[in-house]
Write a structure and sequence with these properties.
Blueprint lengths: L1 E4 L5 H12 L9 H8 L11 E5 L2 E14 L5 E12 L8 H15 L4 E5 L11 E2 L5 E2 L9 E5 L10 E4 L9 H8 L14 H4 L4 H8 L14 H5 L6 H13 L7
Parallel strand pairs: 7-9
Antiparallel strand pairs: 1-2, 2-3, 3-4, 3-9, 5-8, 6-8
The structure holds coenzyme A (COA).
Length: 260
């Protein structure tokens, strides 16, 4: 596997790869490929950390970073990094590419003297490379929330010491217009729209107490279960080890890796 900086001639291939990787994680329409396209043009984009993974001359993975910040109570801001989307071609997933892209770019980020990386992502995947819930560092989302999918990774020991407050990232992540997404999507070869799978496919397998617990989350689609960590589900009244195993198995049946 070769890990190297993305080049302008890779842009379209990387957008296709992103679209393929996220197709089954998109509710209404996949917008992650437009996000990548936009991210390369925002002022917070960090081109030195825009990496692809190549296997036998084919691009099979990509990671992209922007500068973000944590602002403390007095309004003082601390510059940090955020990555995403992180994409691996479906045929190459679970072969170490995602991990390799992260480890390589963390090393480069350290050389560039960044302190830490903060992300929103699969809460049981990213701890494998050292991420911890942001709550452990006294960092909340911009609106003061914490949940396991909101995570931080100091790039060196003590890098986040004394840095607490609210997290802000580039508004491009939250501001993709639906018409722009559709227009962009139409420039790619047709792909059968992904119909999100109902969470009832999971509920049907659970005993009543566990079903009530999951219903309480008000999650409609199976893929959104990946926003919750195994620890968060285990803490719900009515969820026991057997129910957690059922969640893991049912999600796996539909192609979603979930849990520790
Ligand atoms: C999520 C993703 C980036 C992971 O990259 P990858 O190269 O497939 O994963 P790696 O090879 O680095 O890691 C594989 C290991 O992590 C585990 N893993 C993968 N996804 C996981 C998840 N969502 N939750 C928990 N563990 C997960 C695998 O089971 C495997 O475990 P093992 O080593 O014990 O067998 C990749 O699968 C992907 O592009 N998915 C679709 C798009 C996406 O969801 N991107 C991330 C958004 S936050």
């Amino acid at each position: 596997m070769i890990l190297r900086l993305e080049r302008p001639e890779d842009y379209r291939t990387v957008e296709e790869l992103t679209r393929d990787a996220f197709w089954k994680n998109s509710r209404h329409m996949c917008d992650e490929h437009l996000l990548v396209n936009r991210l390369r043009n925002v002022s917070s984009f960090v081109k030195e950390l825009d990496y692809v993974a190549e296997m036998n001359g084919k691009i099979v993975g990509h990671i992209i970073y922007t500068k973000s910040k944590v602002e403390d109570g007095s309004g003082k801001g601390y510059e940090l990094l955020t990555f995403g989307p992180l994409s691996v071609s479906p045929e190459y997933q679970n072969t170490g590419i995602g991990k390799a892209l992260m480890l390589k770019t963390f090393e480069e980020a350290r050389k560039l003297r960044y302190r830490a990386v903060i992300i929103f992502g699969h809460p049981d995947y990213y701890p494998r490379v050292g991420f911890r819930p942001a709550s452990e560092f006294g960092i909340t989302t911009a609106d003061g929330k914490n949940f396991d999918a909101f995570m931080a990774l100091p790039l060196y020991p003590g890098a986040l010491d004394g840095i607490t407050g609210r997290f802000f990232f580039d508004p491009v992540y939250d501001n993709l217009d639906e018409e722009d997404v559709l227009e962009f999507e139409n420039t790619f070869p047709h792909k059968e729209p992904f119909v999100p799978l109902s969470v009832s496919l999971l509920l049907a397998h659970l005993k009543p107490e566990a079903r009530i617990a999951i219903e309480g989350l008000r999650i409609k689609h199976l893929d959104v279960m990946s926003h919750k960590s195994e620890a968060e589900l285990s803490a719900l009244p009515g969820m026991d080890a057997q129910s957690i195993d059922i969640v893991r198995k049912v999600l796996a049946e539909y192609g979603y890796r979930w849990g520790r």
